Amino acid sequence: MKKKKRDAAALSSELIRRPIRRWFPVFLLPTLVCFCIGFIWPFAQGIYLSFCTFNTPKDATWTGISNYVKAFRDAGFVHAFKNTALFAIVSIVLINVLAFAIAYALTQKMRGSSLFRTIFFMPNLIGGVVLGYIWSMIFDAILKHYSTYLTANATYGFWGLVILVAWQQIGYMMIIYIAGLQAVPEDMLEAAKIDGASKSQTLFRVVIPNVMPSITICMFLTLTNSFKLFDQNLALTGGAPSVIMNGAKVNMTELLALNIYSTYNINKNWHGAAQAKAVVFFILVASLAIAQLTATRQKEVQQ
Amino acid sequence: MKQRYKQHYSRGSNLLTAVFIVVGLLWIVPIIAVAVNAFKTNAAVNQNAFALPNADTFVGFDNFVKGMTFGNYPFWKSVGYSLFITLASTALILICTSMAAWYISRVGSTFTKVVYYLCIFSMVVPFQMVMFTLSTTADTLKLNTPWTIPIIYLGFGAGLAVFMFTGFVHSIPLEIEEAAVIDGCSPIRTFFSVVLPMLKPTMISVGVLEIMWVWNDYLLPYLVLDRTKYMTIPIHIQYLKGSYGSVDLGATMALILLSIIPVIIFYLTCQKHIIKGVAAGAVKG
Predict the structure, then answer these.
(1) Half-sphere exposure for B254 (CA within 13 Å, toward CB)
(2) Has residue B93 been placed in a domain?
(3) ipTM score here?
């Protein structure tokens, strides 16, 4: 399927190609210029600056890999790294199990299923900063009954963030699962019924194998989303509480993206290390995304 | 046919509906809590955020007035900038990237392939990677105003949009455009009166994704814009919360309520397109 499309593009007839080429300044140039300003240049400069000591890009001096050494020696970064991994695992399991269960229930014959769909998806329209403040108010109100508050304990902050993100993303994943479930061939389900399969047999032997592509997509979406999470983290706890660990201040509820951001804001001596952290972060996120792409491609081939 | 289906709700399905009403409440209560607390005094919000306002704690629209005028930066200005930035950026992205995608797909040279793969590459780069250099670049080029920030959004958001448009343009049969060229259409005319109408469904998908992204984006405008002069809604709410030693929760909730009402209206009116757009965008990963 993919191959065919590519051939069609390659055969794009001269009749069309030749006149279009002359219109390069109109069609491609504006996007290309903006793409260079908004992405290519900052990206290249970012890689370069991660090997420099700098305050602003103009006064950068090459210092080799010292920024990377400094980044990995930073207890806060290491903690954020572990925190993010743990957070990713918990939220992947929680979000996908719940989203699949909800999607499965909503695709059964059921009163009000489209209304529930609308409700569950709604939080996706609200921005992360706003969501963070809404939930910090709610968590504080609940924890008040136990005479404590959200930023008193890193455990509260961690699980608070898990609940917030689950609340937000379940609806999103649900939509993808519903699309997958609706594509399960009707005759397969009928055949299973005629053969006397029980409901759970049908679910595990017929439905789930058929929605595997959706499961892969959702797993990786939740994975990359949890790694890239920033706004919610900033607004809910902002990294608080912080403790002193090996003589360095460590924000206990900080995830990677927020840690990079707060490293910039320490002082100018940390700019280089922050940029190095960002490069490490980029390599991490990019490899996850590439793993996803290969996994989905393989699934496509199998089908 | 449809009616026959409608009549059969088993007892099990009614039970399921009952369970979902309870679960659904978990999704609605936080929003209701915002709406309720927007009308209470700050002390009352701190005391018990789940209580309904009573005669002592009800303050009417005071919180709205307080929130909107707080800190010598009027809230309506943030709303205006948010609206402008979202609409202008989305329009710019839709027009420029659809044209670029058509060019990339139809010319198919080595150069356009490189551009295309760079676009795909940009989709996996997290914003933190470029945030510092992007904000200094924007400052140097004087792109740090709401009127020019759409250029930054186009640049950073081009990847996904070009990718989605190119995928669709590939599936349009060439014969239609060939016919247009033979009839004497210039590329401009071919694009705008033949290709563009066919791109409409993808336009809606991409448009929805971009609107949701730009409207809710906090960090990019925060770093790029000159904050003393320009704020967007997320920046304003963060500023309100961050700049006060002890936060006025009532006023914060009032502003949050004001900022989510348009979003919810937008969602309820364009729900079908939004959900379709999300499903289409998700496949990209």
Answers:
(1) 25
(2) yes
(3) 0.88
Q: What is the mean pLDDT of chain B?
A: 86
Smallest CA-to-CA distance from B79 within B253, B226, B234, B266 is with B234
Tell me if B212 and A41 make a contact (CB, 8 A cut-off).
no
Global pTM reads 0.88
How many Å apart are CA A248 and CA A265, to the nearest integer?
15
Distance from CA of B279 to the nearest CA of A (A): 6
How many other C-beta atoms can be found within 10 angstroms of the C-beta atom of residue A300? 11
β-bridge mates for residue B40, sequence order? B58
Residues A42 and A48: their CA atoms lie apart, in Å, by 10
Which of A5, A27, A54 is most worth mutating to test chain B (most B CB atoms within 10 A of its CB)?
A: A27
Distance of alpha carbon A165 from alpha carbon A99, whole angstroms: 12
- Cα A69 to Cα A66, A77, A84, A252: the distances in Å are 5, 12, 20, 22
Give every CB contact of residue B4 below 8 A, 6+ residues apart in sequence. Answer: none
Residue type, B259: S
Treating both helix axes as pointing N-terminal to C-terminal, what angle do A41-49 and A271-302 enclose, rounded to 10 degrees? 120
Task: Provide the domain limits for residue B81.
Answer: 73-243
B111 touches chain A (CB under 8 A): no
Phi/psi for B129 (5° steps) reads -65, -35
DSSP string, B196-243: HHHTHHHHHHHHHHHHHHHHH--HHHHHHS-TTT---HHHHHHHHHHH
CA angle A260, A265, A271 (to 5 degrees): 70
Does residue A245 belong to the interface with chain B, where contact is any CB pair within 8 Å? no
DSSP-derived 3-state class of residue A61 = strand
Pairing of strands A242-245, A52-53: unpaired
Domains and their CATH numbers in chain A: 18-68 (no CATH), 74-302 (1.10.3720.10)
Q: Which residues are paired to A62 by β-bridges?
A: A52
On whether any CB of chain A is under 8 Å from the CB of B42, the answer is no
B120 touches chain A (CB under 8 A): no
| Residue B57 belongs to a domain | no
User: Touching check for A270 and chain B: CB below 8 Å?
Assistant: no
Domain contains B106: yes
Give B270's contacts in chain A (Cβ within 8 Å): none
DSSP-based three-state secondary structure for B58: strand
pLDDT tens-place string over residues A172-194: 999 999 988 988 888 888 899 89
Find the distance separating the first CA and the last CA of chain A, reported in whole Å: 11
Q: List, in order, residues 6 or more apart from A154 with CB less than 8 Å away.
A: A241, A252, A253
| B143 assigned to some structural domain | yes
- Kindly report, residue by residue over A1-14, the tens digit of the pLDDT: 444 454 544 445 67
Q: What's the angle, vertex CA A123, arms to CA B266 and CA A233, rounded to 5? A: 125
Best CA proximity match to B165, nearest among B83, B221, B94, B234: B94
Q: Count of domains in chain B?
A: 1
